[in-house]
Specification:
The complex is a heterodimer of chains A (269) and B (348).
Chain A: E1 9-18, E2 21-31, E3 36-40, H1 47-54, E4 62-67, E5 70-71, H2 77-83, E6 84-87, H3 99-105, H4 119-131, H5 147-160, E7 165-169, H6 177-193, E8 198-202, H7 206-212, E9 215-220, E10 223-228, H8 230-233, H9 236-243, E11 245-251, E12 257-264
Parallel strand pairs in A: 3-8, 3-9, 6-7, 7-8
Antiparallel strand pairs in A: 1-2, 1-4, 4-5, 9-10, 11-12
Chain B: H1 7-35, H2 43-56, H3 61-95, H4 107-120, H5 122-125, H6 130-155, H7 160-184, H8 189-197, H9 205-224, H10 226-232, H11 236-241, H12 246-268, H13 274-286, H14 290-314, H15 323-342
Helix pairs in contact in B: 1-2, 1-3, 1-14, 2-3, 3-9, 3-12, 3-13, 3-14, 4-6, 4-7, 4-8, 4-12, 6-7, 6-12, 9-12, 13-14, 13-15, 14-15
The chains are: A alpha/beta (269), B mainly alpha (348).
């Protein structure tokens, strides 16, 4: 059994097979309350699969995933929804929904009445709109939002679920550099206020992860090959090993760690 | 005051508005529908006849026409309008495709084929309950077609697109069989075609109760799940992650909506368009929240269907036009207007 020493998320020797494909191998990690964890690794390495085992969408073949001290696969869907929320990359084409309606859906796991939300639900949703500075867009159709605004709406929806753990999958892939920074600032800001919430972000943007995350988990072919502070994990050797890319890791004049990819090792020589 | 901007209060107010505007319109259309027919009556006469019917039962010739012919007919139009619109809204939400209508799972083709079979096979027509042979056959045919679609869709992955494709091929299969029956049954072609286009002639109180009660019960069940229909709009994974058992919800609602559709087509035949446009129209008027959308669908569905039937029986007296064709004819310009006015915000 994984030890439960105040971890928010902990897994021990977790394996997951898709039929005969070994998607997660001997996964062992833990995350503490209040930590911002960055999940990095190449396409298809198992980042999303790992996120899906944390929120119970996928059941591990062996091993246990404990979230907030409970085996997530023994909880029912509604209990999971109150523990874990997630922010998807993409938003499906909608059927005429507006921002406040989408954010209010985050209150679904906490529903009390049969039909209508309570005024408490609405207050929580309105507060979230303010926190993420989308309150002026409350009645805007979500099809008419910019990518950054849409991403903030999705984060607000995940936030009003009042989760212990928030999982964020590729939050910045469609965003320009300003919105990328802003989304991460919003998440950081959120964590300042909700001090014991854990956030796990899967992303391809290593520089952004290095800048904002407390710890980084490096994933290669379904196996966790490194957990540690950004400076421990993001090294030229690790990047070459996991991504197959030759890169320079250096500090910019303000002291921030920067990864600059130079060339794919496949095309070297 | 905060309550004036509250979205919940706003929702409740809008629902009240939908009901307060809808119910008087339904009553008005009900009165017009029982006043007009090949035998004309003024609204005043109709009103007095109605009072007499309520107090003493139908006695004069006019009262009998109203009570035995026109009342069940307009109530059936309301019922079918409600049923097909709700079924359309359910399928559009579950399959997440705006082009979906209640017949997407092959129900109409199965029902059409079974009805055609019942009308041409001497065995069934000669049986004691000839009056009910066609509806019963159509109902079963609709459900059989849905079962085929269900099996194909579930064994090919069970996603929305599997249902669309499964429904399309099952529909084509039954459609071809119906065509063959049509060609081979020259003397009954007219009757079969009438069924395939849909008609409210021959509606009786007995038949009405058979569809009215189950249709209302099924619609009530759908209404209870309005919040779940909202959540499913966020996509399967998000809905599941919000705590909804998506698989179970989808399958039960697909079965329920197919049952609803089969009931609707069993007695009156295949009336198109209403289940496609009413949910869209309602969505453009009240928005995407199913707590407003579903009640609005019921009211608009009942109104357009009764209006279409009124035009179908009055436009070319004494010949009745097929209500399905009328439905489409009044629907097209109305829907085009809405689309032009509101289509920019309504980007599906």
């Amino acid at each position: 059994m994984p030890h439960d020493n105040g971890s928010m998320i902990s897994s021990n020797d977790l394996n997951l097979y898709y039929e005969d494909y070994h998607a997660l191998r001997d996964v062992f990690f833990d995350a503490k309350p209040g930590e911002l964890i960055g999940l990095i690794g190449p396409n298809g390495c198992g980042k999303s699969t790992l996120l899906r085992t944390i929120n119970g969408l996928l059941k591990p073949s062996t091993g246990v995933m404990l979230v907030d001290g409970k085996d997530v696969h023994k909880l029912n869907l509604s209990e999971i929804a109150k523990t874990c929320s997630n922010v998807p990359t993409e938003f499906p084409p909608d059927f005429n929904l507006n921002v406040i309606e989408v954010v209010m859906m985050g209150r679904y796991p906490h529903r009390k009445g049969l039909w209508w939300e309570t005024s408490d639900d609405e207050k929580i949703a309105r507060d979230a709109l303010q926190k993420f500075e989308i309150d002026h867009l409350a009645d805007r159709n979500i099809n008419r939002l910019s990518s950054g605004e849409r991403q903030r709406t999705l984060i607000a929806k995940a936030y009003v679920q009042e989760p212990r753990v928030m999982l964020v999958d590729e939050p910045t892939s469609h965003l320009d550099m300003r919105f990328k920074l802003e989304v991460m600032e919003y998440i950081r800001d959120l964590m300042e206020k909700e001090r014991d919430m854990t956030v796990v972000i899967a992303s391809h943007d290593i520089n952004l992860m290095v800048k904002y995350c407390d710890r980084i988990i490096l994933v290669k072919k379904g196996r966790i090959v490194g957990i540690g502070t950004p400076e421990e994990i993001v090294t030229e050797i690790n990047i070459a090993d996991v991504y197959g890319v030759e890169c320079s890791v250096f500090k910019d004049p303000t002291g921030e760690v920067i990864v600059h990819p130079r060339c794919s090792l496949r095309f070297k020589d | 005051m905060e309550s004036s901007t509250s979205i919940i209060e706003k929702g409740k107010k809008r629902l009240q508005m939908v009901i307060l505007i809808g119910i008087p319109l339904l009553v008005l259309l009900f009165l017009i529908s029982i006043a007009f027919g090949p035998v004309r009556m003024t609204l005043d006469e109709t009103y007095h006849s109605l009072i007499n019917i309520i107090n003493y039962g139908p006695q004069t010739g006019h009262e009998r026409i109203i009570y035995y012919l026109r009342m069940p007919r307009v109530l059936a139009a309301f019922t079918i309008g409600i049923g097909l619109s709700i079924a359309g809204a359910v399928f559009q939400a579950i399959i997440r495709n705006p082009l979906v209508d209640p017949y997407i799972t092959g129900v109409s083709s199965g029902a059409g084929f079974a009805a055609a079979m019942a009308m041409t096979s001497g065995l069934i027509v000669a049986s004691v309950s000839a009056n009910y042979a066609v509806p019963v056959a159509a109902f079963i045919g609709g459900l059989v077609a849905f079962t085929f679609t269900f099996i194909i869709a579930e064994s090919s992955g069970g996603r929305a697109i599997n249902y669309v494709l499964g429904g399309v091929i099952v529909g084509m299969g039954f459609g071809s069989l119906t065509t063959i029956i049509l060609i081979m049954s020259d003397d009954r072609v007219q009757r079969i075609l009438l069924y395939l286009f849909g008609s409210f002639t021959g509606m009786t109180w007995a038949k009405l109760w058979i569809i009215l009660i189950p249709v209302l019960v099924l619609c009530f069940i759908v209404l209870l799940y309005a919040r779940e229909f909202n959540v499913i709009l966020l996509g399967d994974e998000q809905a599941r992650q919000l705590g909804l058992n998506v698989k179970r919800f989808k399958i039960s609602m697909l079965v329920l909506a197919s049952l609803l559709t089969s009931l609707c087509v069993s007695f009156v035949g295949i009336i198109g368009f209403v289940g496609l446009i009413v949910p869209h129209t309602a969505r453009m008027i009240v928005g995407g929240d199913h707590r407003l959308l579903l009640p609005a669908c019921m009211i608009i569905g009942a109104l357009v269907m009764a209006l279409a039937d009124l035009i179908a029986k009055m436009a070319y007296v004494p010949i009745e036009l097929p209500v399905g064709a009328i439905m489409t004819l009044i629907g097209v310009p109305f829907f085009a207007y809405l689309l032009i006015r509101r289509g920019k915000e309504y980007a599906t």
